[in-house]
Amino acid sequence: MSRSAIERRSELLEDDLQVKVAGVDIDGVLRGKIMSKKKFLSVLDDGFGFCSVVFGWDLHDRPYVEKTSIASTETGYGDVLARVDLNSFRRIPWENNIALFLVEFLEPDTRRPLSACPRGLLRSILGELQQLGLEAMCGSEFEFFHFQETPRTLVEKEHQKLAPMTPGMFGYSLLRPSLQQDYYYALINECRQFGIPLEALHTETGPGVYEAALEYTGALEAADRAQLFKTAVKQIGLRHGVIASFMAKPYVDQPGCSGHMHISLRDIATGKSAFAGDENASAFGATSGMSEVMQWFVAGMLKGLPSVLAILAPNVNSYKRLVANYWAPIAVSWGRENRTAAIRVITPPSCSRESTRLEMRVTGADINVHLALAACLGCGLYGVRHQIALPPPVTGSAEAGDEHPRLARDLRDATAILTEPESIARQVLGSAFVDHYAATRRHEWALWADSVTDWELKRYLELA
Predict the structure, then answer these.
(1) pTM of the predicted model over 0.70
(2) Are residues 288 and 417 in the same domain?
(3) Exposed, middle or buried: residue 2 (CB in 10 Å: 0-12, 13-18, 19+)?
(4) Do residues 211 and 332 share a domain?
């Protein structure tokens, strides 16, 4: 490395003593540590060892039931290689402005992207789009509950009868945020300082629920921001005496927490939208305002949706959100400005031509954004390559039926579809990833199947 390059790196951290590094695991949890600046600068070229156990255990650090080829007792939980992405640099304002960098995980022997690395998988899909002269853009929306609790009281209460930050159903309320005004504005201001500008923040219907819309940007940066946003909200919330939850469905009788993704493609050569239809085309018709590329892309997403559902709805609880009459889709469907469909297409006159886009509405707030976006883009790319014909849109409520198959009802069934020998997921994401990911989902299902729930106790304890 040249002396000037070394100096530029040193200048970036001129006044720092330490640096925080983090990578995204299979569940979307950021796993990382603090390094001395000296150590950090020494690993920029060749990367550093990171224990593979982060791909061998679950949300609660419990090793997976199935042995995986990446991390298990059979592999000895050896190190994988972590490579710093200097372009991910930002500072954490609520942690004394410490520098933060994201890493991607590589195979230590070949230095190729680790098949289970969410960020590396997304980067790979983006590379395939780039070969076609296309760039993906994305903006995320998250709904999340708040509880006036601490990590300790969650355990003491056994996660039952938690106190919501505010009571009642107050969607788009200007009154409720005033009860937590310091926290509300801290979210806006500190996220902006953290490099995660919000387009909007408002209350949603439900006790203590907020919804945030993150600014639209390139897909990799959008995924980074979304994943960091979830962590930021939790950290900022703790300082203000609240627990923020992105669980898909905390209450059976309330709407769940969505994690919708707005997606579009841009022509790299022209900088123009690749989704925008011909200006001179008819303003009427099922596909008016949609380019051929967009039609193929949406068709590919629909065709691949059943096989990637276990990625878009990654947890046992995710499927409690995907029920009728609760603002969540239940069938493979698309519609124009239709919020009951799995994919909502937004074209003029609802937006400008350059803002033509789709909204993936299956995803909940509990997603691993890098994986979910990789799955959506991969399926869309499949549609473009095969020029798949777009079926007619739904009008009215997108009910499940012969023309619109019902999505899998639980994680077990979704994972079974994911792992089918010829699944689109295998074709677009690779069998190495699919096999590892499926093992982690079967682990989740096994833990659920072996548990004794409150519902079982209430139903059977006395009368069975």
Answers:
(1) yes
(2) yes
(3) exposed
(4) yes
